[in-house]
Amino acid sequence: MSISRPSTPDEPLNPETPSTSPASAESASSGSAPRHVAIIMDGNGRWAQSRGLPRIEGHRRGVATVRRTTELASRLKLDALTLYCLSSENWKRPKTELDFLMHLLRQYLIEERRTLLEQNLRLRFIGRVDRLDAKVLREVERTQKLCRDNTGTELVLAVDYGGRDELARATRKLVQDALDGNVSPESIDESAIAGKLDTEGLAEVDLMIRTGGDMRISNFLLWQISYAELWFTQKCWPEFEDADFHEALADFGERTRRFGGLVSS
Fold it and tell me: Region labeled Disordered — which residues (predicted)?
């Protein structure tokens, strides 16, 4: 795992002098590029509070970072980009903050439709989307319908998502299949479990990025990141830039992935 240079609240953002230029980063990752990148977008609230702003302003600024990162993923032709938008545990937060997050999600889905179509992005939601407010769910369905014929990078938004909950739901589906006589317990293998997950059909995560300085996975894609490379940065999500994404990709390209085996000499 890698930790990028820490930032301070007063540190100016300077996209003109990235630590890794886009050209060199794309070149470095071209021989060993990830197909599926997942990001824990952490630090919105802390970023805002460190600047004397309300937490919701951090979430607002975080949406702009989502837009930039999604566009970059499309240009790099990633197979999939999965973003951790709202965990199942986040419902413990104040109602005012949750209401604002739902407002931002609904607004994002409405305002980004043209961009999603122009960039040929597919759109998938994972998690308990069925528990969302009816107004938000309506925009989820409309936007997915508009993007259904797209063939580019798949943008996966994890909303009301928890890795343990996903595994529990997948287990219940398999148990029901067994009770219905559609599958025998002996035939249940890793492939059968993967086929019942929200991410069914997606490649496993190659690279997981977490912003905000914490070094944990927070119940995110527990099955899918079994062999993912992990990359952490002290930067909070609103200050995460293209150069940081390129740095993570370049670092990934330099790693040797063994998947439990040995590298032949």
Answer: 1-33
